Amino acid sequence: MASPAILCILFISLSLFTASLASTSDSSPTVYELLEKYDFPVGLLPKGVTGYELNSTTGKFTVYLNKTCSFTIDGYNLKYKTEISGTISTDKIKDLKGIQVKVLFFWINIVEVTKDGDELELSVGIASADFTVDNFYESPECGCGFDCNNGIGGKAGKFRFNSKPFVSDS
């Protein structure tokens, strides 16, 4: 049978180890900070992300929302599923799944986002649209995007294109 002193030392050691793990997980960056680390603006994701997973070696990631999220920005209907995944590297997100844009009557997956200087190119595969990065400095809110009546929004009408939206590359 272990002596009370040894049990006390084990208990204290276990408590310190658990506290160390808790403080490590609390200090991990938010998903919005990770976007910035890879040179992307935080506004690529809406407010309300509940968690994420990232393999820092491969860049494969999954982002979680507690519910689907949709809003309209400058005439574009966007929809975020509860799970968004892809592969991120500096200035490029590829194999993107879980974000859609409505073009005419169809919901089309945004499959890649590329940053080139102050421009973001959102690609749906055969077509893409360019936007200035300053359109994405704030995260939109589910339901109202940047045009929210609660005083947090106020960016309505600022979303603008640098070229024709979602035009074929050919």
Automatic annotation (TrEMBL):
<feature type="signal peptide">
    <location>
        <begin position="1"/>
        <end position="22"/>
    </location>
</feature>
<keyword id="KW-0732">Signal</keyword>
<dbReference type="InterPro" id="IPR007493">
    <property type="entry name" value="DUF538"/>
</dbReference>
<dbReference type="Pfam" id="PF04398">
    <property type="entry name" value="DUF538"/>
</dbReference>
<dbReference type="InterPro" id="IPR036758">
    <property type="entry name" value="At5g01610-like"/>
</dbReference>
<protein>
    <recommendedName>
        <fullName>DUF538 family protein</fullName>
    </recommendedName>
</protein>
